[in-house]
Amino acid sequence: MARVICLGSAVLDHLFRVGEIPVPPAKERATAYRAMGGGMAANAAIAVARLGGDSALWGRLGEDANGAAARAELEAEGVDCTHLRGFAGARTPVSAVVVDKRGERVTFGWRGEGLPADPAWLPLAALEGAGALHCDPRWHEGAVAALEAAATRAIPSVLDAEKGEARILLDLVPRVAHAVFSEGGLANFAPGLRPADALRRALAEGRTTLAAVTRGEKGVLWLARGMASPAAVPAFPVEAVNTTGAGDVFHGAYALALAEGREPAAALRFAAAAGALRARDGETPRRPALEAMLGSA
Ligand SMILES: Nc1ncnc2c1ncn2[C@@H]1O[C@H](COP(=O)(O)OP(=O)(O)OP(=O)(O)O)[C@@H](O)[C@H]1O
Ligand SMILES: [Mg+2]
């Protein structure tokens, strides 16, 4: 079984369903509520596990009720949480997600409190047996430590270059082998550039060998060293019910595909099928559904 280590954020999302999202000040009754795990790296780790990989999540939680719920869900999915460390006195990142009757949503993300930046406790030697490392940009110091250790060991690395602080993306992209941006992340990284030029810039320095941008139902554009211009991977056509988390699942699936030894073009197609299924079903897919989709087109 291919092992993928995911590093970054685990969050507990609190979802409220309402009829209309009102203009404040207002008091509205929620018709449904549920708490569920989120966070880019955590969603990617679940995707790896569901798709048949050996999945571990390295990251930080508070030792609080939200952290316990996030951890329990990951463990139930079969994600190795040995190095998802809880810190006394820290508070777990949470978000409030309010969804109206049309499926439109408002999200407030809170990054937590008191989560120590120092990555010295990470078991970097355990990267040895991994087929790939996946990082998100939400724990900058942790990602730097793990990406440097992966490079030393020639382990393929993937960054979910999602939008956030530009300085973090500028620092992390040259450290990673596969920089896979969202559209917002690419705009943060290279403001004002056309996608092809922005991808070129991502390959211009450091150890990046492939840069890609995911564009929802428009599919993926990617550029590897030695290619004159970007190539496209079309999205699988689906009736999308909920596209939230499609990017996170895409990244987990991409890292797993690399860990299983696929070449980039095939790994991107594998990941596009996983993202499309997540958008279609609102659920992270399992391997048989993904194989069926790959075989169908
Ligand atoms: N509606 C869709 N139909 C088909 N494929 C989709 C759809 N939405 C997403 N995908 C697949 O998943 C990939 C990642 O999705 P997307 O580009 O929306 O990620 P994102 O912008 O990072 O979003 P998020 O992180 O919020 O999930 C897309 O490139 C595509 O291959
Ligand atoms: Mg994303």
Offer a few descriptive terms:
four-stranded mixed sheet; UDP-N-acetylmuramoyl-L-alanine:D-glutamate ligase; 24% strand; 9 helices; alpha/beta
Short description:
With 297 residues, the protein is of the alpha/beta class.
Descriptive account of the structure:
The chain is α/β, with parallel strands linked by helices. 34% of the residues lie in helices and 24% in strands. It has a single domain, classed as Ribokinase (UDP-N-acetylmuramoyl-L-alanine:D-glutamate ligase), CATH 3.40.1190. It has nine helices and 13 strands. A nine-stranded mixed β-sheet has the order 5-4-1-8-9-10-11-12-13, sandwiched between helices. Strand 9 (157-161), helix 4 and strand 10 form a beta-alpha-beta unit. Helix 1 (40-50) packs across helix 7 (246-259), helix 7 (246-259) packs antiparallel against helix 8 (264-281) and helix 8 (264-281) crosses helix 9 (287-296). The radius of gyration is 18 Å and the shape is globular. The two termini are 26 Å apart. Bound molecules: adenosine-5'-triphosphate and magnesium ion. The site of adenosine-5'-triphosphate has 23 residues, from helix 7 and helix 8.
Task: Describe the main β-sheet briefly.
Answer: 9 strands, mixed
Distance between the termini: 26 Å
Look at the helices and sheets and give the structural class: alpha/beta
Describe the strand arrangement of the main beta sheet, using strand numbers.
5-4-1-8-9-10-11-12-13
